Amino acid sequence: MVSYQTPFKELLSRWLDRKSVIFSFCWLSFLVIVALLAPIIANDKPFYFSYDDAYFFPSLSGDEYGVLRDKTTGKIISVNFTNPGKEILQHAFIIHSPIPYSPHKSDLNNADYAGPFDH
After folding, report:
1. 79 within 8 A of 51, measured Cβ to Cβ
2. Radius of gyration of the chain from its Cα atoms, rounded to whole angstroms
3. Does the global pTM surpass 0.70?
4. DSSP readout, 29-64?
5. Dihedral sign for Cα atoms in the order 40, 41, 44, 46
6. Strand partners, 48
7. CA-to-CA distance for 88 and 72, rounded, in angstroms?
8. What is the pLDDT of residues 75-107, one digit of tens each?
9. String of b and e for 31-51 (b: at least 16 CB within 10 Å)?
């Protein structure tokens, strides 16, 4: 009995034998994953924010502020995730995004930068 391969299976087997095709597929898959995760990777809000028993994921939810209750005083506190106060930073656990970026904020530290061809 003769085994018959469909044209698609034959093409696929020829492609999988070539290392350049495998490498290109892996590289393209990596770039697609990075592109899909870009809003999380490059963000000015923290990825994870916890204070006492409350926890938030501001970069996933898009929230600018969070409301929580302080255990010691019982007060309700409004927290700005991008710039929390010093008293909150002392008791909070924060995991920031790897690349701090916001398209709506200026980079004042590099505002006077001149490019290599600017004279």
Report:
1. yes
2. 25
3. no
4. HHHHHHHHHHHHHB-SS-SEEEETTEEE-HHHH--S
5. positive
6. 95
7. 13
8. 888 888 888 888 888 888 988 888 888 777 777
9. eeeeeeeeeeeebbbbbebbb
Contact 36, 24 (CB under 8 A): no
What are the tokens at 98?
């790897």
Which amino acid, 32? Answer: V
Contact 3, 10 (CB under 8 A): no
Rounded Cα distance, 77 and 66, in Å: 8
What pLDDT, on the 0 to 100 scale, is given for residue 1? 59
State the pLDDT at residue 18: 85
CA distances from 81 to 34, 35, 39, 58 (A): 24, 24, 16, 7
d(C-alpha 68, C-alpha 66), whole Å: 7
Q: Given the DSSP bridges, would you call strands 48-51 and 92-95 parallel, antiparallel or unpaired?
A: antiparallel
